[in-house]
Design a protein that fits this description.
The chain is mainly α. It has one domain. The chain has 7 helices and 2 strands. It has a two-stranded parallel sheet. The longest helix has 20 residues. The radius of gyration is 14 Å and the shape is globular. The relative contact order is 0.15. The model has no long low-confidence stretch (mean pLDDT 92).
Length: 122
């Protein structure tokens, strides 16, 4: 599951603009999760967090910055709490910073659109 989600997000960052919904991640990565069931949605959150932690620790951008919570303007609190755990700052301040999320997304796209990075790390 993790490999499929990571591969989808890497390719999404290379070829798409904007954000992707939880539902699209589930469908495109063929996860078979039902997001109407709370523990299955929580499982997707866990997958995204694990991928992001691994990527960040390896010096690569946080891929889950591309995944938007349906019906919100950006990310949910869990994303910002993950960023706080990674040492990026207090989650409430990160959430209030209008540039934080857009900078993460730009960094992610720049990194993965670089052919050398893609060849080496995808």
């Amino acid at each position: 599951m993790i490999t499929r989600v990571r591969r989808f997000l890497v390719n999404y960052s290379r070829h798409q603009t904007g954000t992707v919904s939880y539902l699209t991640v589930v469908q495109e990565a063929e996860l078979g999760l039902n997001l109407d069931i709370s523990h299955e949605k929580a499982r997707l959150n866990e997958l995204l967090a694990e991928i992001s932690e691994t990527e960040y620790q390896a010096g690569r951008p946080i891929l889950s910055c591309l995944v938007k919570v349906e019906g919100s303007k950006g990310q949910g609190d869990n994303f910002f709490k993950l960023c706080e755990r990674l040492g990026l700052g207090p989650w409430r301040e990160l959430k209030q910073n209008p540039d934080f999320l857009s900078n993460l997304r730009a960094e992610c796209r720049e990194f993965w659109r670089n052919e050398e990075n893609f060849a080496q790390f995808s």
